[in-house]
Amino acid sequence: MIIAVDGPAASGKGTLAGGLAGYYRLPHLDTGLLYRAVGRAVEAHEGQADFEARAIEAARDLHPDDLDPEFLVAQKIGNLASKVAVIGEVRKALFQYQRNFALRHGGAVLDGRDIGTVICPEADVKLFIIADAHARAERRARQFAARGQAVDFETLYTQIEERDARDRANPNGGFYPAADAHLLDTTQLDIEAALRAAVAIVDAVI
Ligand code: C5P
Fold first, then answer.
1. Ligand 1 centroid from CA 164, angstroms
2. Is the complex ipTM more than 0.95?
3. Which residue windows are transmembrane per the record (predicted)?
4. CA distances from 17 to 90, 157, 162, 182, 193 (A)
5. Other Cβ atoms closer than 10 A to 150
6. Cα separations (Å) of 115 from 6, 41, 43, 71, 198?
7. Is the CB of residue 31 below 6 angstroms from any atom belonging to ligand 1?
8. Which residue segments constitute the domains of the chain, with CATH numbers given?
9. Which atom from ligand 1 is nearest to the alpha carbon of 9?
């Protein structure tokens, strides 16, 4: 069984995908980590002429050891990730990694932006998570606060909106709900309620 979980930044899709993976005993891949790892690898080249070429190279050379979330959570890395994510050759280089993950294990939960549209259009269940931008910024702020990192709410909110706009406008992105995706609005839901709602959708389909 392949479950695709797509949605915008800080929509709760990662937590939800992790919860579904635990519930159905499937491996989980947070595909945002791939883009974040590429973004981190080219951080020093931002704004330079070789940024794109370096990003393509980093995507082609990506190694599973590069995907440690601990080094990739920063807001800055998320923003860089969305900049490398518009490069078609980067997406192409990361495609096979994601496909292999989905197929190798005979089932998986993948979360990202284009899982239901590009990576696994044949997924058994597709969830598209939405949540109000304000609620998403609040969640992200709480996550950073829990790690003892001070963040300015307004800055966070603006960055989330900028990243959404870049992701939606990405001509190579595939970031829209697939025709057969189930929309789940988590604005008013806590983690447990969101997971219950997602399990209900999956159980009704499989
Ligand atoms: O999900 P996360 O916030 O970690 O993703 C970071 C960035 O990586 C996104 O803003 C998006 O630009 C890009 N991304 C993507 N396709 C995916 C996953 C992430 O373009 N499947």
1. 10
2. yes
3. none
4. 24, 23, 24, 14, 14
5. 7
6. 6, 23, 26, 23, 16
7. yes
8. 2-205 (3.40.50.300)
9. 3
The strand order across the sheet containing 28-30 reads: 28-30, 108-112, 2-6, 125-130, 182-185
Which tens digits make up the pLDDT trace of 131-164? 999 999 999 999 899 999 888 999 999 999 999 9
**What sign does the dihedral 89-86-11-146 (CA atoms) show?**
positive
User: 134 alpha carbon to ligand 1 midpoint, in Å?
Assistant: 19
Q: How far apart are CA 86 and CA 165, in angstroms?
A: 12
Question: What are the structure tokens assigned to 180, written together?
Answer: 């057969």
How much is the pLDDT for 105?
Answer: 86
Count of helices and strands (H, E) across the chain: 8, 5
Query: Going along the chain, which residue ranges are E strands?
Result: 2-6, 28-30, 108-112, 125-130, 182-185
pTM: 0.95
Q: DSSP character for 140?
A: H
Measured CA distances, 91 to 20, 34, 146 (Å) = 25, 10, 32
